[in-house]
Amino acid sequence: MEKTIKIDLRSDTVTSPSEEMREAIYKAKVGDHGYGEDETTVELEEYCAKYFGKEAGLFMASGTMSDQVSIRCWTQAGDEIILDGSYHINYFQAGPSTDLGKILLNTCHSKDGVLRVEDIEKAICNKIRGNLFSRPALISLENTINGYGGTIFPIENLKEVYSFAQKQGIPLHMDGERFLNACIATNIPVKEYALYTDSISTSFSKGLGAPFGSIIMGSKNFIEKAKKYRRWYGGSLHQSGFMAAAALFAIKNNVQRLEVDHHNAKLLGSLLKSSKYLNINLETVQTNMVMLDTRDIGLTAKEFVSLCEKKGVFLYPWHTYTVRAVTHLGISEKDVCLAASKIREVCEGITKRKVG
Ligand SMILES: Cc1ncc(COP(=O)(O)O)c(C=O)c1O
C-alpha cells in the first residue's frame, strides 16, 4: 500500500471533529439527563424540533436507535411495516427490526427506491386483512435513499404517499438520516419537506460531521412514548450534553456546506465515468454518493475495493458488483481528483492483466 495516501470514501461517518467542535464539546454545560437535567441536550432537542417544524425531539445514540425506537412507538407485536427492500431498516436492520420490534417487514421492490402509492397498495393487498390478521401499521420511507446512491425521495411523491397514508390511518416514518442532504440538494426548506411525515430522524454523525448521535422528531405524544423505549433500549444517557454540544455545533454550522460534498460527488462520478472503465449512472449522483458497477471489469465489489485500498483509496462494497463512494467534510476536491486517478490506475491494471 502507498502509505502516504489515505482517502476514505467508505462513508460520511468516518469524519473527525474539528477544533471548533471539540471546543464546543469541552465547554458544554451538562447535567444528569436521567433526570432530564442536561441543558445542552434539552437545547439540542428544542432547536431541532423547531428547525424541522415538529412539536418535540429526542436525542438518540445512533440512527439505528432512532429507527428502532420509532418502530416500537408506532407498532405492536405482529404488525407490519411497509417499506422498500433497499431501505436501511430492512437491508441492515432486519435483525433488530424483527427481534426488538417483533414486526414483519412487508418489503416492496420499487424501481428506484421511491415508494409510490401503487407499491404500498400492492403491499397492503398482498395478504388477507381484518381484525384477525396482521395489520399494516407503519409506512417507512428513506431520504436520501442510501441503497440507490443517496438519491432524493421527491417531495411530490412524498406528498402523495403521505396523503394516502393519512386516508388509510397509517403513520409515516421518515428515516431521514441524510434528510438535510436532500433539503440542500433540492433547495426545499426543511420544515416544508418534513411536513409530510409523522416522525422523522436525522443524523449528526453522517454528513454533518459530529462524532455521535441522531434525533427523532414528531408530536409531543410520540416523543413522550419514545422516551420510554429509548430508556428500554439503553439510550437514556446521563451527561449527554457533551455529545449534544457536538450535534448542536454540527446542525448550526455544517448544513449549508453539504453542497460542497454534493459538488465533490458529482466531480468524482464524472471523472470516473469519463475513464470509461466503470459503469456509473450519473443521474443517480444527486447528493454525496457515487455507486460504481464493477461487472464490466470482471471483478466483484469486494475484489475491486481491496485493490483500491492498496492504492490508498477506501470504498465500501455495497453489494456483489456495486461499490459505494461517499464524499464528506474530510474530503477536498483535490482528494477527489487523486482518488479518481488511483481508481483509474486500478482499472487500467486489471485491463492490462486481462489482455496480457
Ligand atoms: C438511511 C440510514 N438509516 C439508518 C442508519 C443507521 O445509522 P447508525 O449507523 O448511526 O446506526 C444509516 C447508516 O448509515 C442510514 O444510512
UniProtKB/TrEMBL annotation:
* Span of domain Aromatic amino acid beta-eliminating lyase/threonine aldolase: 8-293
A Pfam family recorded for this sequence: Beta_elim_lyase
Provide the coiled-coil residue spans.
none
N6-(pyridoxal phosphate)lysine occurs at which residues? K206
Keywords, in A-Z order: Lyase, Pyridoxal phosphate
- Family of the protein in this entry: Belongs to the threonine aldolase family.
The molecule here is called L-threonine aldolase
